[in-house]
């Protein structure tokens, strides 16, 4: 589904990702841990092709295709979908318009909007004065409508209350449980792991990827216990 | 409307300025081509509509008011006009369906000079939708429109003007409104098609207590064009209010978006809002908001914001699969929001469709 080989990325001529290797199979859910500023968001932005994230080395293969020459919309059409950590407000464009662009089935839009308590938000300008939790629900809403093959979820549960995490977790679990879709999930709190089966984990520290493929729940427990400082010292030797 | 034969293209152009040739859901219609009035009739009791020259002969108030609004502004009007409409809504008459008028330019290098007048008598209420359009044959043509509005005590006039010109036509509208006590004048202006040059500064004089005015405009500027468009409100009496709202998008042309609020009485409240979006490197938008008063207890404010579409917004949409062009287009359409116009539901839907049709292929 996704294969990343020897990927290095620069932002403002500063290296933020160094020689990353990562593979996510179809139906697989990978969790990405890492301290603030370690490069997690940058990794998914580079995969999507955001401007400012310059690939200086390596390859990104999405659904069997090298994305190097592809624009962002082409990458999205190839099956990748991103949940933004901090999405921008888009004045004048309503959530409904994007929804109807992503999905022609109006019933599905309606049902899912209801499930995620977003019925009223459909008529609103996208992200404009949305609360933190509403933003996350609206992002998930769009990805499910997009029917993306691989989801890049940037902290899906941050700022979301317990009840809504459970609602989002349910929607996400249902989406992923068919084993047709894959995901790369960034999380600090680990709450989302209570709702979905994540097979593997990995860890980004200072732009380098470690521990790829380990059991994510075990990894999370260790991080909780010893902190990322311990990871820095260990350098993936476990 | 039967009597004349428009070719298909011209009929479409006339429709693009808001004219409904079927007259369904219209109270009265007026159509002038170059200097000839092709059609003029009222379907509603209490509404008079006719050629200006006829009105000056037949209708006492036409003669009485002629030029009065411009005198109020110390302005002289160009003479030698031919045609134009006179519309009068009689005292207390509330007109449900819009009254429509269209001034069509057809002749090559023709100089159309029209004189319009709208009188809304005491307590009357009406919506007027007027369009100006030019045929493909109207090369290097010119339009001068002199319009005056009299909104009497407690009356309401909602006046919408759609300009549908082309790149080699120059336009000079002149307009003044006198708004009486407790009366409201709403002016909506829409110009989405190319035009060589438009210079206009329509002005409303709030000449009675509790009078209100609002000017709303949507302007799309095409490469190589100049639109110098302002709205001015002069507050001559106390407790008057006004609002000026404009949205301009430059695809490469120059827009000067002016707004002027002059409070000459106590307890005036008014706001001016101008937002601009510059799409092309060649485009410019110049916002000139002006506020002026000698009184302390007035509340005048303005906000102006001009910028380009932020890259993050485009990327947000392209990350969902839209192409950059699609993303830009949906953002521009959202910016050119028909909802800023104060239109009744019926006309709002028409306007949305019209805008959609006009914008298609514009960018
Ligand atoms: N567009 C950008 N412009 C400038 N610097 C950037 C940009 N994007 C990322 N960076 C920098 O790159 C580094 C990695 O940032 P990134 O957002 O990828 O971290 P992260 O792992 O997602 O952190 P967090 O857990 O806080 O979200 C940081 O130092 C950040 O400031
Ligand atoms: Mg991040």
Structure report:
The complex is a heterodimer of chains A (238) and B (363). Chain A has helices at residues 40-48, 72-77, 95-102, 106-115, 132-146, 162-176, 216-234, and strands spanning 2-11, 14-24, 29-33, 54-62, 65-66, 80-83, 90-94, 125-126, 150-154, 182-186, 200-205, 208-214. Chain A is an alpha/beta fold. In chain A, strands 6-9-10-3-11-12 form a six-stranded mixed beta sheet, sandwiched between helices. In chain A, helix 3 (95-102) packs parallel to helix 5 (132-146) and helix 5 packs parallel to helix 6 (162-176). The mean pLDDT of chain A is 93. A ten-stranded mixed beta sheet of chain B has the order 2-1-5-7-9-11-14-16-18-20, covered by helices on one side. In chain B, a hairpin with a 2-residue loop joins strand 1 and strand 2 (36-42). The mean pLDDT of chain B is 94. Bound molecules: adenosine-5'-triphosphate and magnesium ion. Adenosine-5'-triphosphate binds next to helix 1 of chain A.
How would you summarize what this structure contains?
Chain A has helices spanning 40-48, 72-77, 95-102, 106-115, 132-146, 162-176, 216-234, and strands at residues 2-11, 14-24, 29-33, 54-62, 65-66, 80-83, 90-94, 125-126, 150-154, 182-186, 200-205, 208-214. Chain A is an alpha/beta fold and 238 residues long. Chain B is α/β, with parallel strands linked by helices and 363 residues long.
Topology:
The complex is a heterodimer of chains A (about 240) and B (about 375).
Chain A: E1 2-11, E2 14-24, E3 29-33, H1 40-48, E4 54-62, E5 65-66, H2 72-77, E6 80-83, E7 90-94, H3 95-102, H4 106-115, E8 125-126, H5 132-146, E9 150-154, H6 162-176, E10 182-186, E11 200-205, E12 208-214, H7 216-234
Parallel strand pairs in A: 3-10, 3-11, 6-9, 9-10
Antiparallel strand pairs in A: 1-2, 1-4, 4-5, 7-8, 11-12
Helix pairs in contact in A: 3-5, 5-6
Chain B: H1 8-15, E1 28-33, E2 36-42, E3 47-51, H2 52-58, H3 60-65, H4 68-72, E4 85-89, E5 99-105, E6 111-120, E7 125-134, E8 142-151, E9 156-164, E10 170-179, E11 184-191, E12 197-200, E13 203-206, E14 212-221, E15 226-235, E16 241-250, E17 254-263, E18 269-278, E19 284-293, E20 299-307, H5 311-318, H6 324-335, H7 345-359
Parallel strand pairs in B: 1-5, 4-6, 5-7, 6-8, 7-9, 8-10, 9-11, 10-12, 10-13, 11-14, 12-15, 13-15, 14-16, 15-17, 16-18, 17-19, 18-20
Antiparallel strand pairs in B: 1-2, 3-4
Helix pairs in contact in B: 5-6
The complex binds adenosine-5'-triphosphate and magnesium ion.
